[in-house]
Amino acid sequence: xxxKATIRVTLRPSVLDPAGVAVRSGLQQLGYTGVSNxxxxxxxxxxxxxxxxxxxxxxxxxxxxxxxxxxxIEVYKFEIAALEAAAR
Amino acid sequence: xxxKATIRVTLRPSVLDPAGVAVRSGLQQLGYTGVSNxxxxxxxxxxxxxxxxxxxxxxxxxxxxxxxxxxxIEVYKFEIAALEAAAR
Lengths: 88, 88
What we know:
homodimer, alpha+beta, Mth169, Chain: A, 3 strands
């Protein structure tokens, strides 16, 4: 079966986010003074082939730990959805 | 009222994504041969102050168009949730 996965990788709350601070400062200069706590992460979409839901989740857990996220400073969340054969 | 917004900025489907191609190639070298169509985007969380839901959505639409996304090559989606005063 084919699955579509959407993965969000974000810095751990305890880790400083200089890019987020820069974006917040830029937004405030543009007049968005009510904006705060900006955090920037990665958003990854991918498709994968797996025998079932559980196997797809296992694969995504492993590939996030190995490549997409740095577990020391980042955490990830993901959702999967089965793809209809016709939709591919 | 305070709102938390989560924003996903992705390349338009017609735009090539060299970073996604590189990640796919890296994953395949790690043995994840069933992975395809990898697309990399940005995931942004922020808090903002607005009078109501509609005003919050208007502000986020504007700041995405002005700063967070490049509308020529990117699209964005977002969700907002009202923050309890106690949760801030």
